[in-house]
Specification:
alpha+beta, two-stranded antiparallel sheet
Length: 154
């Protein structure tokens, strides 16, 4: 099917690529269907593009790309909503914010990751109750911290 988007123009997506978010996203409960669009080959970024709203797409990143000790603990209710039978089918992403003209100051929302069950094609944004995580966690600083920790340990 053809999907008309503001950011990417018209893209072709297969019906089986559509992800359902039964509860929508935090603050956007009206948006239920999304597709993942890769930013570019070799990039750690991808986009969560709304199927319903052509102008809505969130920049995402795999949090373990920059925060190797990140932990996501799902409640039983969240696991049930995601129809989790095996954790290997889950993919976790965090939203990225890049201030205009300041890519070095990009942040990730580690407090509210987006968890996707790839086999069931459903997703959910969960809120973690872990004081280590913030809504504006500095990505580059975390990458440097992880690299320094690895160097000092090895």
């Amino acid at each position: 099917m053809e999907l008309h988007t503001t950011r990417f123009g018209t893209i072709n997506v297969d019906a089986e690529d559509i992800l359902t978010f039964p509860n929508g996203l935090v603050g956007l409960s009206q948006l239920k269907w999304f597709v993942l669009v890769h930013h570019q080959a070799g990039s750690p970024f991808l986009w969560l593009q709304s199927v319903e709203e052509p102008g809505f797409a969130l920049l995402l990143i795999d949090p373990w790309f920059f925060c190797t000790d990140y932990e996501v603990v799902l409640s039983d209710a969240e696991a049930e909503c995601l129809r989790v039978s095996d954790c290997s089918v889950l993919r976790v992403y965090t939203t990225v914010t890049i201030p205009p003209g300041k890519p070095h100051a990009m942040t990730a929302n580690l407090m509210a990751p987006i968890v996707i069950n790839i086999s069931e094609r459903c997703g959910r944004q969960v809120i973690l109750e872990d004081e280590r995580y913030h809504t504006r966690h500095p990505i580059l600083q975390e990458m440097w911290r992880s690299a320094e920790h690895t160097e000092s340990a090895g």
